[in-house]
């Protein structure tokens, strides 16, 4: 057995759903009209945000809809984060109209997550907040057919079964999870990512890296999810710097789009952990509360949660050394694993992203309180005892937050 290979329980039950159809490649977004025509839909709601209009990313999509004589109306009031206010207003718009037979989403993760809820809430009664139960699927009826078209390469929302929502009162994230939220068609067109600002490219890329690596180290990962996660992590590590520095490089853009999509599939497998393990648990808590966008928050958390988990998952973490081009010879698996977090810190620095909680103005006075919150409350929402390799205690949770604040990697090879 390879030094970095884990044994799997091949006899455990595996059950999962995925998107019905994926169209991947340059200019595939021009086929949206054809896809709706195929399922005999005639009146669609386009959900997007103002920047998509600003950069002209709807032009070819509208042309395609008109070509196939599909009527449409555009709703473009989605903000950068998927707030409950966004969802409630969009659902009200769709319900009050009453004529839409499908939904087309064009945008980043916030747009896609909101659109999935809109398509489902049109055919299900009640308010969106009633469906935000991560461990229970409350949708009774199939939603409107939906086509999801991402304009950033990060969230993987176009192929995931989740819709993330920010709770304005607590400023923490929660989500709905259901096979009802899966797209009928995901159209992944790397051309649409070219106009994304460099900071968006960096944050989206780190979100995709976090999805895949956290899925890789999950206690309930298996060879299917590992294959996707490992390939995606390799694509990101080899292409994200290029996409950041040379936005028009289509080879790098395509690689990032592919890796984000694979990450969305990985986190949709129910045995992997839903949104992932400790990194997303942390990032989706401190990000909204302290003003760091999602990709920045989970990207910054990633090296520290790998460092935290080394004692329990050094085989899986060390397996990344090959794809990160880290040299090792005659070293223990644990020693090799300790080289991975610094490599991710270097990637963050190359992308000019924050590497510590201090960098995002997280107050030092909140370290103990936040660490206790993760241990005593939030880890239950993410079911970390089931999915995260290392057991959390109050003491190690607080120490982890302190390390993230100070920029300390406890297992770093010196």
Automatic annotation (TrEMBL):
GO molecular function: alcohol dehydrogenase (NAD+) activity; metal ion binding
Ranges where the Alcohol dehydrogenase iron-type/glycerol dehydrogenase GldA domain occurs: 20-190
InterPro entries cross-referenced by the UniProt entry: ADH_Fe/GldA, ADH_Fe_C, ADH_Fe_CS, Alcohol_dehydrogenase_Fe
Keyword Transcription annotated: no
Keyword tags: NAD, Oxidoreductase
Oxidoreductase is among the record's keywords: yes
Domain of life assignment: Archaea
The Fe-containing alcohol dehydrogenase-like C-terminal domain, residue ranges: 201-403
Family: Belongs to the iron-containing alcohol dehydrogenase family.
Name of this chain's protein: 1,3-propanediol dehydrogenase
Lineage of the species this protein comes from: Archaea, Methanobacteriati, Thermoplasmatota, Thermoplasmata, Thermoplasmatales
